[in-house]
Backbone:
């Protein structure tokens, strides 16, 4: 265990209107890593704007989509590269009582994109949230996971509107393709003050998924019982790299499949003075990029932080 | 050896009686003896004295003798006669006082009655002699008669109590045990008791052993009075057991001990109604005892009209700082058989050392909830128990409890217990809370209808009421969810349209810019119907959560504090029409124009439509 080292350095990533940012993801667009942000405005009817900004080079933002919302609730969402060079956004639609998940392809060849597809139409009386595309995707595969009724992780594997496959009890979850298998990374909540308005604290767990997406092998706790708030992950070679926000800072863990289970290859935590939210990680071009947001707006130019991760063999 | 007659003076008496005329030298005595042998002279008394025996009479000088009272003893007085000191002579002795003795030359003075210088006189041959016998009273015993406990033999124990009555030591004398005898007692230690010379008192104002001694008639006796410092206890902490652990509104369970004196801590606890309350008290020893003491501890508290009592024992040793009952104490009776909120439930504690006085041991004030029954839901969040138990206090039937619990919802007064934050409906207007936990966790306390529906349901489940279910309200076929929804009152339809399905005759005009355009609708002051701590919640939804009590069929809308006896009544009170959330927001099917059955109701727990 821990036969390699992880190094991480974070620096401010100045963005206009950073104070309005609700969430961020990292996405490779045109083979370049981009920071994708969301902000919901309630004036003149609620709408959520998704914008992208390249991590490197000229820092010019472009709007990916403006998606109207009936209510001003900031949607939880995820973004993935589309199969035609564009992107796909899965997002929550707040209905007042329940949330549905919709899939939009704002950058398709169609002007204005295709009409959004109601992903959860097969389950109209259940509420969905925290949609996450599978990481380590193949081609245009838009398989994703979500949390239903705030308690259970499920996976949508087929076309929009189909039934889901139950995964596990969790408050947040993400599926990563690792080699020929799938790894489920999930958070179980624990009592304590929330971060921001609604981010429950919890503990992180990982398990491999077998036939029918059923957990198999032993469950791994990559950070032990350390309190974790949010998580992201990606595939780095044959390994899974997890990026999570902690009580004070962030943490990284590198996992690999080992027998029926998983093993921690390396771990690293980095302290940060301010409380952090919305961790994002992207493996692209052989590099690992991360982004994270300070929960409170102190200085707008220093609200978003980005960095890169170096993986080296332990000397 | 010298002739005893010469020294006794009996010779002079003999001469006085004419038996010897020359008795002033040895020759004369010798001749007298010779002549007696020949012809005994008349007998004369030589002496009277006291003979040692069980009475143990003591010569106190000259002819005075003292003996002590004894029921069976006699002082033995004996006379000696001359010349033969034999029976013949003794029979001639004339005795005064005393009783017949074993021999005629002996007299007995009984010791079973007091006498003062009883002169026992013997006379013979003109010679008289006497002894003066005094029989003195005697100490029988001393003992403690009040305010102390005999712990062993002559050891008596009393607790320090400067203001309390003294330990009373009392002597018994014989034969009369009266003031005359008592006056002769010699006491050591203790203080005199006015008018009671047979008593001494030992004040309880200093710890230590006081030996009180009495002496009379040569008899000594004592008691050791051990004045002990009793332990003084004060309730220090209490750990409850067998209770429902209360959760701090998503911050975690309240930990034991649930009550502490310092820093003052009062963690709420819950016991189902009609159950006994178990607790383990720990006491601080504010004054340590001088020796190990058994102390009975008692707590009493009134719940409604029911008095619950906890009793137990602790052993307090001289070095103890705290003491705890060995096992949990169970109340003697159960809580009242109704829902209750006892805040505060003040337990008055007392500590009573064995054979000591009852002493207060402080109060502990608790927040105690008594739900209707065992929970059928999730965590016992503090707010669930506090709001519901206060509202339903005194109720003992499920449907009545549900109705009572809804009271605070109807009154828009549902604060989060842990910090007093008023829970709100859609404040802020971007709240994400859809569950009880999320509502209670958010710092702002704002939640959507799902959170409010769960809050009411979970309150009922905390009482074991499983008939309260969430109900989904949304648009029926052919309207597509998440495109079509319903308009929550109050909307103004300019020129109300006919109530025809799929008739979208109006433009939504939330920004009120279409005033001159026919066929618009907007909200109007006073805006929407008020929700929880929100005068103007969002005006339209794709879906909504309310609650039904399937046992009564009553619909509860906790978000708006409203109830309805049927779905149509709910719809009429809450919905103004439907909307189409397409590219151009449209509205229609005004209920004011007669549209009805615009929304459907589905019991989320059963999946059944409510018709």
Residues:
């Amino acid at each position: 265990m821990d036969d390699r080292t992880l190094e991480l350095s974070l620096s401010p990533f100045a963005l206009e209107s950073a104070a309005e940012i609700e969430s961020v993801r990292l996405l490779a667009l045109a083979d370049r890593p981009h920071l994708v942000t969301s902000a919901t405005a309630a004036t003149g009817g609620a709408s959520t704007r998704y914008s992208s900004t390249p991590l490197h080079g000229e820092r010019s933002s472009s709007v990916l989509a403006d998606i109207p919302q009936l209510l001003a609730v900031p949607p939880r969402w995820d973004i993935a590269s589309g199969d035609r060079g564009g992107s796909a956004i899965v997002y929550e639609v707040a209905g007042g009582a329940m949330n549905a998940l919709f899939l939009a392809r704002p950058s398709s060849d169609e002007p204005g994109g295709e009409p959004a597809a109601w992903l959860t139409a097969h389950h109209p009386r259940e509420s969905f949230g925290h949609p996450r595309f599978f990481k380590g995707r193949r081609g245009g595969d838009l398989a994703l996971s979500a949390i239903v009724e705030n308690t259970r992780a499920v996976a949508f594997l087929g076309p929009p509107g189909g039934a889901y496959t139950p995964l596990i009890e969790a408050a947040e979850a993400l599926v990563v393709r690792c080699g020929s298998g799938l790894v489920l990374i999930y958070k179980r909540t624990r009592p304590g003050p929330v971060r921001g308005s609604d981010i429950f604290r919890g503990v992180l767990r990982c398990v491999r998924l077998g036939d029918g997406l059923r957990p198999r092998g032993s469950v791994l706790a990559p950070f032990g019982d350390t309190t974790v708030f949010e998580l992201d992950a990606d595939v780095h070679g044959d390994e899974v790299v997890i990026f999570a926000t902690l009580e004070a800072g962030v943490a990284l863990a590198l996992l690999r499949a080992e027998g029926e289970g998983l093993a921690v290859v390396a771990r690293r935590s980095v302290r940060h003075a301010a409380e952090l939210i919305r961790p994002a990680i992207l493996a692209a071009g052989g590099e690992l990029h991360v982004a994270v947001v300070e929960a409170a707006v102190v200085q707008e130019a220093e609200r978003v932080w980005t960095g890169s991760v170096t993986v080296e063999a332990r000397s | 050896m010298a002739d005893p007659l010469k020294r006794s003076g009996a010779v002079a008496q003999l001469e006085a009686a004419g038996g010897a005329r020359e008795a002033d030298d040895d020759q004369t005595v010798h001749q007298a003896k010779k002549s007696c042998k020949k012809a005994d002279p008349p007998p004369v008394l030589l002496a009277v004295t006291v003979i040692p025996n069980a009475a143990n009479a003591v010569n106190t000088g000259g002819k005075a003798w003292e003996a002590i009272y004894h029921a069976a003893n006699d002082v033995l007085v004996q006379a000696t006669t001359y010349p033969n000191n034999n029976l013949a002579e003794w029979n001639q002795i004339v005795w005064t006082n005393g009783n017949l003795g074993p021999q005629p030359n002996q007299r007995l003075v009984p010791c079973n009655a007091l006498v003062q210088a009883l002169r026992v006189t013997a006379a013979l041959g003109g010679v008289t002699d006497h002894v003066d016998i005094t029989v003195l009273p005697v100490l029988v015993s001393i003992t403690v008669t009040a305010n102390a406990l005999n712990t062993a033999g002559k050891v008596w124990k009393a607790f320090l109590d400067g203001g309390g009555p003294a330990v009373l030591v009392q002597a018994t004398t014989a034969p009369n045990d009266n003031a005359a005898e008592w006056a002769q007692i010699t006491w050591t230690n203790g203080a005199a008791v006015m008018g009671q010379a047979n008593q001494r008192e030992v004040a309880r104002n200093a710890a230590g052993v006081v030996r009180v001694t009495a002496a009379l008639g040569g008899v000594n006796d004592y008691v050791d009075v051990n004045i002990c410092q009793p332990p003084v206890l004060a309730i220090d902490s209490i750990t409850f057991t067998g209770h429902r652990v209360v959760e701090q509104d998503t911050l975690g369970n309240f930990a034991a001990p649930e009550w502490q004196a310092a820093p003052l801590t009062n963690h709420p606890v819950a016991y189902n109604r009609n159950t006994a309350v178990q607790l383990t008290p720990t006491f601080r020893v504010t004054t340590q005892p001088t020796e190990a003491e058994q102390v009975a501890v008692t707590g009493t508290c009134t719940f409604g009209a029911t008095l619950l009592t906890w009793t137990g024992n602790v052993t307090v040793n001289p070095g103890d700082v705290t003491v705890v009952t060995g096992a949990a104490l169970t109340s003697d009776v159960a809580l009242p058989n109704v829902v209750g909120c006892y805040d505060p439930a003040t337990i008055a504690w007392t500590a009573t050392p064995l054979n000591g006085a009852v002493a207060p041991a402080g109060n502990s004030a608790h927040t105690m909830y008594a739900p209707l029954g065992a929970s059928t839901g999730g965590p016992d969040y503090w707010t669930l128990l506090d709001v519901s138990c206060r509202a339903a206090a005194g109720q003992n039937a499920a449907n009545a409890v549900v109705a009572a619990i809804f009271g605070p919802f109807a009154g828009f007064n549902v604060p989060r217990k842990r910090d007093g934050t008023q829970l709100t409906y859609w404040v802020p207007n971007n709240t994400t809370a859809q569950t009880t936990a999320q509502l209670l966790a958010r710092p702002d306390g704002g939640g959507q209808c799902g959170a409010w529906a769960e809050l009411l349901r979970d309150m009922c489940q905390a009482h074991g009421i499983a008939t309260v279910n969430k109900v989904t309200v949304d648009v029926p076929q052919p309207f597509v969810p998440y495109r079509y929804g319903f308009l929550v009152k109050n909307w103004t339809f300019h020129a109300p349209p006919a109530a025809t399905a799929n008739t979208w005759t109006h433009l939504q005009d939330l920004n009120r810019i279409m005033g001159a355009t026919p066929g618009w609708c907007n909200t109007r002051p006073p805006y929407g119907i008020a929700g929880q701590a929100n005068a103007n919640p969002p005006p339209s939804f794709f879906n909504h959560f309310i609650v039904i009590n399937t046992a009564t069929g009553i619909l509860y809308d906790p978000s708006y504090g409203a109830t309805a006896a049927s779905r149509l009544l709910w719809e009429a009170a809450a919905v103004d029409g439907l909307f189409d959330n397409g590219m151009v927001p449209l509205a229609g099917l005004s209920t004011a124009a007669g549209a009805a059955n615009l929304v459907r109701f589905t019991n989320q727990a059963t999946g059944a439509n409510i018709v």
About this structure: Chain A has a mean pLDDT of 92. Residues 99 and 127 of chain A are 5 Å apart (CA to CA). Residues 4-313 of chain A form a domain with the Neuraminidase fold (CATH 2.120.10.10). The longest strand of chain A covers residues 32-41.
